[in-house]
Amino acid sequence: MVIPALNEANWIVGAIESARAPGVEVVVVDGGSRDATRELAVAAGVRVVSSPAGRAEQLAAGVRVSCGDTILLLHADTRLPSGFDQAVASALEDVRTIGGAFRMRFEEAGWALRVVEWGARLRVAVFGLPYGDQALFVRRRILEAIGGVPRVPIMEDLDLVKAMRGTGRLAMLDLSVSTSARRYRARGVARTLFRNAVATVAWLFGVDRQRVAGWYRR
Q1: Of 3.30.559.70, 3.30.565.10, 3.40.250.10, 3.90.550.10, which CATH number belongs to 2-181?
Q2: Helix (H), strand (E) at residue 50
């Protein structure tokens, strides 16, 4: 289990607690937090390592120091459901399955957020593209075979999923992770949906990733 974090003091403990399960190793990769993220993670009793900021870089750093045969990539503001470990293990009993993801739901209420959730389910059903906030998991040998987590400034999750799909079957689990809608609240649901859609189209057409990142983060 790898959790990249940067200034996530309000969320990191919840993510760690949701990830606790027998035999599950948790690695938090801090990207230089200026708040108490690192101290809270250390106090929670998990391994904490440092990395340059950037989700792809942090994920890669966490994978390097982790030991499990299966790697689960968890956002710091996302919570895993009870029984996640058994669900992942059951999915990987099928040798054709090389990894997968969970369903996604928001912690907050609101019809607009329910629409976003429905859109995420539709995206997975039609295009087979789960996002990183759906807690992607992958067999280590597969991740190593495809060259690890792609080192790109944005949308490393889609690059990773695309590479994974070229090696085998992805399992879409019925269990849902719970994630924060803070980015949707900060920018507005409609605006955030639009930005995500444009970024995804840019990814599909191979637009320079630095340009996409610069536009998306404005």
Answers
A1: 3.90.550.10
A2: strand 47-50
